[in-house]
Amino acid sequence: MYSVPAFGPNGTWYPYLIYQDGTEQQKHHLATYGPLSEFGYKDFIPQLTAEKFDAAEWADLFKGAGARFAGPVSEHHDGFSMWDTRYSEWHAGRLGPQRDVVAEQKGAFRAAGLRFMVAHHHAEWW
Fold this sequence. Notes:
It is a single chain. It contains four helices and four strands; from the N terminus they run H-H-H-E-E-H-E-E. The protein is an alpha/beta fold. The longest helix is centred in the C-terminal third of the chain and has 11 residues, at 101-111. The chain has a two-stranded parallel sheet with strand order 1-3.
């Protein structure tokens, strides 16, 4: 989900850093979107549409690069799951793209003959 604001070299930490006083991410967020009390990280969810996402295209890219396995980060530190899950209300199956992006990748990667893996980055869930 952090790809929606796509700010700075440390973009994956955007959801954390916008809430830390004085960071470049917070300064950018306040200048671009206004106060966090009016537009916080969760307010990016409707903008995550995945309209250009094509799992088969990704599979072709990885296979063409010589990979034998590939897979997504299914949930990053922001707590937004990219699959349809019953364990949280904050997931791509219900919000944003309303698609199970991980399942789409699983099908496309396996169809391309790649082993499928998933990385789950929630150790520092803010």
